[in-house]
What we know:
Layout lengths: L6 E6 L6 H8 L10 E4 L5 E2 L15 E2 L2 E2 L6 E2 L1 H15 L4 E5 L1 H14 L12 E5 L7 H7 L7 E7 L5 H9 L5 E5 L10 H26 L13 H4 L9
Amino acid sequence: MEQEKKYKVLCLHGFRTSGSFLKKQISKWHPSIFEQFEMVFPDGMYPAGGKSDIEGIFPPPYFEWFQFNKEFTEYTNLDECISYLCDYMVKNGPFDGLLGFSQGATLSALLIGYQAQCKVLNDHPPIQFMVSVSGSKFRDPSICDVAYKAPIKAKSVHFIGEKDWLKVPSEELAAAFDDPLIIRHPQGHTVPRLDDASIKQLSAWSSSILEDLKSSDAPLVSESVNPSGKEYVGTETTENLVEQVAA
Length: 247
């Protein structure tokens, strides 16, 4: 029996943590939610430049994607980070969706917004969906005017904590997406444990994503004979889909 295809999700960790830590965080969620997805957890480009909030909780090494000032209006190594991630996605993908926590979620939304405006990832199929946990928008107007120029069409789910210090920025990020699903929880700046209602919401959302992805793959089966005589390229199918996932 042929094994069912798994769709790839790039998972970006929070500030001064690691891909392994995000994998552990996501393990709180019911395994059936992402069982048909291949979840990839890379480490950030740069070693942690200071103390990590998870020291003593989870073993090092710790990493960060880029650096920023206290107001989150100035960024160091952001362009290098974006270039690195775009190259990583092309070489190791294609990726169907993104998932991120905090700094990783903020980056994920930026990549999707930039791709929608043809600024990056022009040689990668459109990212179809995003899972954001405690994400936020960048505040530099030169970034905002491009990344959030128009409502982002990728399907998205946003986890927003009642006690999270990024609660308001998370709501602002969700508002940058077209028809986002918002799942609220009573916790703080963390990947939350989900109650039954949230599990049901997330499961239904991920199931709808799977159906969309499978539908987009369907033409590949019937293209064994190509009347146009042109070589078939998988990304041609995805172009017809709507575009689009500090610890």
